[in-house]
Design goal:
Mean pLDDT: 92
Number of strands: 13
CATH topology of the largest domain: Cobalt-precorrin-4 Transmethylase, domain 1
Number of domains: 3
Oligomer: single chain
Strand content: 15-25%
Bound molecules: iron/sulfur cluster
Largest sheet: 5 strands, parallel
Order of helices and strands: EHEHEEHEHEHEHEHEHEHEHEHE
Low-confidence stretches: none
Distance between the termini: 57 Å
Length: about 300
């Protein structure tokens, strides 16, 4: 069995994930364990389990945390009401939310203060959407699809703005935005899309090569909405696509009849994990052919270890 292995790039940590992981490492070193993190620091089970070994406790339940202990907010952002509850309990906190997520929270607050209602495209069960809407659940209307859009009603004079989750499918979001604009002609769009550069680049990197390959492996966790979207992108182009946390999850029949396998990963996956998948494929008869680099990313977000 011989097949080609092609790597997609960019695929590794985005600036927000790199910052959140780096900050948590530095916080551990500076303040010592235990450190508490709301939710998962990033959506990757290996990273979470490595931190758990160092006495980082991942919990949303504030009953688990005592006064003066330190909590870190994850890269996905945090609900304003949760920050208040943390402060009310005299828990010290450091915010490792990605600055691009914080930007959407700020935009939502700014528009609501100017009497807008916000149509927010996002996934109802994703933390980022849940926490952004917490800024004003009455005025931020989360929609995931056309059926949700259909239910919205506003007067033609109501000021409306559209914001969205940073990690959506670029193509699906464009289609939903244009439906929303048809329904509400007064709808304003922010000057820059809220879908972040890392999401766009990783989806484009996969999309560009899909016509040339026959199988797609996305390395990532199943609770990472972006990893799922990359896999769905492959399926949309009729490619056999799988989402795996590690090489152990590659079924032997997946490799049957493969001519070229494309590997990519979401931004919360370490390069070591991608390399382990590549090595496994090589042990099964795969030959590394090339890495296709769509674009080089230079974004860096500085750390802030300031306790509040
Ligand atoms: S995917 Fe984008 S928004 Fe999410 S952490 Fe990375 S850079 Fe930030």
């Amino acid at each position: 069995m011989n097949f080609k292995i092609i790597l997609a790039s960019p695929r590794w940590y985005c600036a927000g994930v790199d910052r959140a992981i780096g900050m948590l490492d530095d916080i551990l070193e500076k303040y010592g364990a235990p450190i508490f993190v709301n939710h998962e620091i990033v959506h990757n089970k290996f990273i979470v389990s490595e931190f758990e070994k160092k006495w980082v406790v991942f919990t949303d339940n504030l009953d688990d945390v005592e006064k003066w202990q330190i909590m870190v907010f994850s890269a996905h952002g945090v609900a304003p009401s949760y920050v208040q509850a943390v402060a009310d309990k005299w828990i010290r906190y450091i915010d490792a939310s990605c600055p691009l997520v914080i930007k959407v929270h700020k935009e939502a607050k700014k528009f609501i203060a100017s009497e807008y209602e916000v149509i927010y495209i996002g996934q109802h069960n994703h933390q980022e959407a849940i926490w952004v809407s917490d800024n004003d659940p009455e005025k931020i209307h989360v929609i995931a699809n056309e059926a949700d859009l259909e239910k919205l009603q506003f007067s033609p004079t109501q000021k409306l703005v559209l914001l969205n989750q940073t990690t959506l499918s670029v193509d699906d979001t464009k289609a939903l935005i244009s439906k929303a604009q048809e329904k509400f002609p007064q709808l304003e769009l922010p000057s820059f899309s809220d879908i972040c550069y890392a999401t766009t680049n990783r989806q484009e990197a996969v999309k560009n090569i899909l016509p040339e390959i026959d199988k797609l492996i996305i390395v990532g966790s199943k609770n990472s909405s972006n990893s799922v979207k990359l896999k769905l992108l492959g399926q949309k182009f009729w490619k056999e696509s799988i989402l795996i946390d590690s090489p152990n999850e590659i079924a032997s029949d997946f490799l049957e009849w493969a001519k070229s396998i494309w590997i990519s990963s979401w931004a919360s996956v370490s390069e070591d994990l991608v390399q382990s998948v590549q090595k496994f494929l090589e042990s099964q008869g795969g030959l590394f052919e090339k890495e296709i680099v769509l674009t080089k990313e230079k974004m860096i977000f500085p750390y802030s270890l300031e306790l509040k």
